């Protein structure tokens, strides 16, 4: 059995290995070919010695059944946690950190899974194609956590990614009519939710390590995006006391998520919104072409498919 397993081809790390998203399938097919070859060798031996063939055929069938049972038992756990997308373009370097695992370098053709944290190196850019055909592009110095990804074949049931810092651009495939499938990109300051469109999200790096990102930019190049802006509650916005009621004024303290206020903003094509914690209110305006045309924007222009829905 061990000799048989060693003969099964393994994906080549760093070079894409098997075709994208087909690694497990390729291994199963390879195992099938090996077993057929072994059976062929047994048949040839049986033709050379018919007397031995009659007694050994039943043992051969039992061995093959046992072999398949053992091999599939080892393969099925890997199939249960399948890829939700693959790397199509990589300029420079990037890594994926599986939940509870160690960081692995990415390469063109590599698979990406739910609960992966993707980090893009300096002067680098990354393009991913998800199982439903939606596209994500991630810019240099970015950190993106794929918190939710539910696909049935090529249909999306839900997708949520958290942008810790950096830049991400998305071209979202439209869901089936009547579907409530969501596609969201979150930051510390905003949640951008769409059904089918193209948009970009930038999350500024925290000024202090461990702090929240202070600023988020959402730009829409096509379609509509609903943005939920998260802003800290200012002291003047606290609940007003009733006449004659005494209130205690809290001293300086850290603002928690429960003390944020949310504002809902609907953006259309060529709109943008800036959510800045220091300004205290969202700034909605026309899309800033200078920002859209930066180095990351040029990478997007080079690699977006005009036919991407």
UniProtKB/TrEMBL annotation:
<keyword id="KW-1133">Transmembrane helix</keyword>
<feature type="region of interest" description="Disordered">
    <location>
        <begin position="39"/>
        <end position="59"/>
    </location>
</feature>
<feature type="domain" description="FecR protein">
    <location>
        <begin position="116"/>
        <end position="225"/>
    </location>
</feature>
<protein>
    <recommendedName>
        <fullName>FecR protein domain-containing protein</fullName>
    </recommendedName>
</protein>
<keyword id="KW-0812">Transmembrane</keyword>
<dbReference type="Pfam" id="PF04773">
    <property type="entry name" value="FecR"/>
</dbReference>
<feature type="transmembrane region" description="Helical">
    <location>
        <begin position="67"/>
        <end position="87"/>
    </location>
</feature>
<dbReference type="InterPro" id="IPR006860">
    <property type="entry name" value="FecR"/>
</dbReference>
<keyword id="KW-0472">Membrane</keyword>
<feature type="region of interest" description="Disordered">
    <location>
        <begin position="1"/>
        <end position="23"/>
    </location>
</feature>
